[in-house]
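Worked example 2:
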Amino acid sequence: MSRTVNSEHLLDDTAKEIFRKQLWQIADYCGVEILTYAIMSNHFHVLVRVPLKTGIPDAELLRRFHVLYPKPTAYQNADYETIADLLKKNTSAADAWRHQQLALMGDVSQLMKLLKQRFAIWFNRTHERHGPFWSERFKSVLVEGRGHVMATMAAYIDLNPVRAGIVEDPKDYRFCGYAEAVAGRKAAQTGITAIVADPHNRLWRTVGKTYRLHLFGAGATPRHDKASISPDALAKVLRKNGTLPLASVLLHRVRYFTDGAVLGTNAFVAKHLTAYKQLTGLRKRTPLRPLPKITDWGDLVTLRGLGKNALG
């Protein structure tokens, strides 16, 4: 997740469309799978799956290079044909080129760096603007790759335009993964299918219905009288230790999905906490943080406690 500088509403529909295309393009180059996303006027969210790093054959490296650089630019020292010839000769220069490309692949940080840099250059040039476009480094949360955990995070992301009051149903907001999937884009449908993770039925018609249950709960249709609650009413429920359906809670800001560091089951979060302690030498006891008991989160816990302002 990343915001524009000063959270200014800089992204109109044209800019969102350019950003959407660049997101898919750069994810393809980096070899990172987009599961879903939401592009808003002053920030964006994207849920991705990063594969384990493996050897990539030259033919695939060339394909990805051509995706990222379909036309040679003044800043490139060689074009596609020249590089292909270089790789055939398999010289030290070819090894250097392979190393340069591989360093940008299979890494969320490189994906975000390329995406944010490319879009900022386009935006500033198009709008005769100078200075930074993005406010800060992106925020990231490590999410366990399980059905319920992934689906909850994905639903929170796709519901961004509903929380913002732009649409009543995310299928009507063209700049989110769910809307692309409903519109028939295969790559977006593949992402949602991976989120639902039903090995027995991967037909989009069935997957789409299942995913709507994560978005809206029982009935799978947006019903404002039951699926939403005012901020004051939410605060009242919190004070009285009451509970709400998960679909209602996801229509409010939940900072655990942007600031929780690690999200998943006890075993998953504990594993990464142990790895973090070994890496940093941290010795103090750090408890896992259950999410506030305002809804049935399933078995979700988080690494970072966020206090009273975590929901709102």
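Residues 193 and 202 are 6 Å apart (CA to CA). DSSP finds 15 helices and seven strands in the chain.
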